[in-house]
Amino acid sequence: MAKKIIQVNRNPVYEIGMISTVFGKDTQFFGDLAFKKSLQINGTFEGEITSGGYLVIGEGAVVKANINAKAVIVNGTVYGNIEAREKLEIQAKGKVYGNIRTAKLKIADGVIFEGSCEMIKPYEEISEKTAPAAKVEAAG
Length: 140
Fold this sequence. Notes:
Number of domains: 1
Mean pLDDT: 85
Number of helices: 1
Largest sheet: 13 strands, parallel
Radius of gyration: 19 Å
Structural class: mainly beta
Low-confidence stretches: 126-138
Helix content: under 10%
């Protein structure tokens, strides 16, 4: 009889769903990072981050980057500007040193935030309003 191997996924689960990829606490990453689904950084990152998905900055993580993502959850330290098209959540141990732009903002007690905040319209509404109207011509 063959043994079945069951792998338990230990990636964190948030309100946004399960995180696809996790950079561990000992991870150091330098450069430009682009991803589509979800990522949690628990180590150190320096560069630029662009994503159509979700980014979680874990407790103890240090990120020195400008961030542009669909949603961002900060529980570590970010040095740089953050643009979260859907929502930005800064949890109790989060620290943000930079400007933020987001459609929805949630800040817990105890957060350190040094910068300015700009509230923007949700990404979907912006897309619909700025998309060119369809042009219909009658043949005649």
